[in-house]
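Notebook p. 47: complex prediction with molybdenum atom.
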Amino acid sequence: MKKSKGLHELYNKDPITADKFVWGRESDPISRRGFLRKAGLASMSLALGSSIPFAKNFPAGMIPAAFSQSYDPFQLYGKDDLILLNDRPFNAETPAHLLDDNVTPASRLFVRNNGIPPVESQIDPKKWTIHITGESCMNKTTLSLEELKTKFKHHTMQLQLECGGNGRSEFTPPARGNQWSTGAIGCPEWTGVRIKDVLEYVGVKEDALYVAYEGGDRHLSGDSRKKPISRGVPIWKAIKDESLIVWEMNGMPLPLIHGAPVRMICSGWPASVSGKWLNKILIRNIVHDGEKMNGQSYRVPCEPVKPGSKVDDKDMCIIESMPVKSLITFPKSGIMHNKNSKLKIRGHAWAGDLKVKELFCSYDFGATWKKAKLDRPINTHAWQHWEHDVEFPQSGYYEIWARAVDDIGRSQPVVLPQWNPRGYLNNACHRIAVSVKI
Ligand SMILES: Nc1nc2c(c(=O)[nH]1)N[C@H]1C(S)=C(S)[C@@H](COP(=O)(O)O)O[C@H]1N2
Ligand SMILES: [Mo]
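Predicted complex, structure tokens below:
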């Protein structure tokens, strides 16, 4: 394992030099696809080194969890064994078993950058301002971070953040973009003010439709006229009580890589709407047309299409609420378990703008499902914790599958949801491998 430079060291330097720094990563997510083509059930048992009691239920073409989740740990300053997906722009995800905490620590929150983040020397929280403007803004205003903190009531909430492309690596045919496995999700606790309160302060015209952000990062091309990303949400979403502008994460100042000194959090939607290094809020009278709002970005076909289809931009619709999803965060996939004891499993579940109503577990590749104990969310848009005990009938290779259902009755799919050109919204069931011995 190669040791990388720390984030601080990296981003404090001339960003161009820093961007040239190359990390070692040996495994290629594509090789997992190779497995799909090659292996039959018999060779699968051989490779696993044990029998598969429920083999007849195993879906054709699916890769056993024992093989599909191989990770190379990656050392990164301030981060605990995240997996690096890309170093320009910088993107890293968290293996499922490292997301076991109820509240995700900073060291275990995934990182997604579309451009070149500002360097620490460019950020002086005392001088930072947020410009509030746009066609539907009554009084265009510039607020310092200090004013933001003193003028409005503070709120602290656990809000989950999930990249719209989380799970992309599983789609067939493959979609271009960061090959996220399951780890572009986390649920830290954030402190800040409501977007609603700030909008009330500046005044909003009746024709307001969208609220969007711009941040202090730079376009990968270095062109200062271009923004790497500038997205937004309809005004009804922006004025929800849980839509915040935050400067603290888990009681500490927001880390640089997560948008210091201040960012937006609009939980339950693709995390791309939660602008980092926030320096401009736009109150628009149109659907925001900033970078990555149009074309195929963060959009899916308005109507389902055949996998592999080319879809016209005009037939692509903006992703809003994220679908119901869950993770098994304990135990780690690939463990050995003694048949004579129950296996305690647990994890989290979330459902975009909705709540998770039920969570089920299966140890026989989905033939039977048992209901797990599921907690209520601590606040709206916090992920929910679940746990379950499993008793195995005999020794051999098993997989535990977890399947959440939202409060309007929609379930996670077992294999894959609707294919889409950019590989968004994969909310297929998470699986872990368990070898049961006598
Ligand atoms: N200014 C800015 N904000 C941004 C981004 C970015 O590149 N620049 N990336 C977005 C995307 S696509 C995601 S998934 C989240 C990731 O937040 P995190 O890095 O704090 O986990 O930030 C969003 N906000
Ligand atoms: Mo994202």
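Notes: Residues 109-115, 161, 163, 215, 217, 228-229, 258-259, 271-272, 274-277 surround MTE (ligand 1) (CB under 6 Å). The helical segments are 7-12, 15-20, 29-38, 41-48, 65-68, 145-151, 195-202, 235-238.
Next step: compare against the earlier run before touching the bench.
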